[in-house]
Amino acid sequence: MLIRADLRRRWLGLLAVALLMGIAGGVGLDSIAGARRSATLFERHLESSRAADVEIDPGTLDEGSDQAIRALPGVQEASWWATISAYPLDDRGRLDLEYVGALSFTTDGRYLDMDRVAVQEGRLLDPEAEDEVMLNPAWADALDIGVGAEFPLGLFATDENGWPTSRRPDRQVMARVVGIMALNEDVTGEELDNTIPRMFVSPAFEPPPDVPLATYYGFAWYG
Q1: Which of 23, 86, 191, 202 has the fewest beta carbons closer than 10 A?
Q2: pLDDT reading at 195 higher than 70
Q3: 60: Cα separation from own chain's centroid
Q4: DSSP structure class, residue 107
Q5: Alpha carbon distance 65, 219 (integer Å)
Q6: Do 153 and 89 form a contact (C-beta atoms < 8 A)?
Q7: Is 21's pLDDT higher than 50?
C-alpha cells in the first residue's frame, strides 16, 4: 500500500511538471512566432503596399518633367501624387478660407496602386468616381466628419503662389467620404506627418481641359 501510494504521488508530480513544461513551451513558441511576425512587419507592409524604391520631387507637375522621369534609365514604373486646389465650400457655395492651408492631393495612380494607402475605416476610393474622397484622421477631426459624410467640394484656379484667384469654384461636386486612410509615409515616416490634414481627391475630379497643369496642381512627388 505504501509503495502504491508513493508511486501515485510520484506519477502526479511528474504529470504536473509535464503540464507546466508544455504550457511554458507553448508560450515560448508563441513568443517566438510573435517576434518573427513583428520583425517582418515592415517588410510585409512594403510588399503589400507596393512601396516605391525611390521618390523624386520634380517641383511643379508638368508634361516635360513627367516624360523625363519616366524615361530615366532603370525606371520600370512611375506614378505621382500632386497637390490640387480642391477645398470645401461654405454654405454660400464659396471657398471656405478656413481650409485653404490643408493639403488636398490627387494622383495618376500613386497611393491607389503603388504606395497603396492603408484603409483604417471604410474603403479605397474609386478613381473613376469624381465625388469620392478619403481623409486622414487629422482632416476628419478638423471637419468633424467620418465615413459616409458629404460636403461641397470646389476646384479653384490659383496664382503663381498657389493661392486661389477667386472664392467661386471652377468646378464643384458634393464630395462623399468613403474612407479614412494612412499614407505610406504615415507608417514609415515621422510622427509629424500624422498631424497634417490631408484629403485624397479622386483623379476623376479633373480640372477643365486645355488649361496649364500649374493652374490647379501644385508640387508633385513621384514614386
Answers
A1: 191
A2: yes
A3: 22
A4: E
A5: 12
A6: yes
A7: no
pLDDT of residue 57: 83
**Number of alpha carbons in the 13 Å side-chain half-sphere of residue 214:** 11
Mean pLDDT score across all residues of the chain: 79
Quick check: 4 pLDDT over 80? Answer: no
Degrees to nearest 5, angle at CA 64 with 58 and 66: 55
Q: 124-128, 133-137, 210-214: which has the minimum mean pLDDT?
A: 210-214
The total of other beta-carbon atoms located within 10 Å of residue 162's CB is 14
207 in Cβ contact with 216 (< 8 Å): yes
The number of beta carbons lying within 10 Å of the beta carbon of residue 107 is 23
CA–CA separation, 141 and 11 (whole Å): 63
Q: Give the span between the Cα atoms of 12 and 6, in whole angstroms.
A: 10
Measured between alpha carbons, how far is 114 from 50 in angstroms, rounded to an integer?
Answer: 5
CA-CA distance, 177 to 202, in Å (whole number)?
Answer: 11
Beta bridge partners, 180, equal: 121, 135
Q: Is 70 exceeded by the pLDDT of residue 12?
A: no
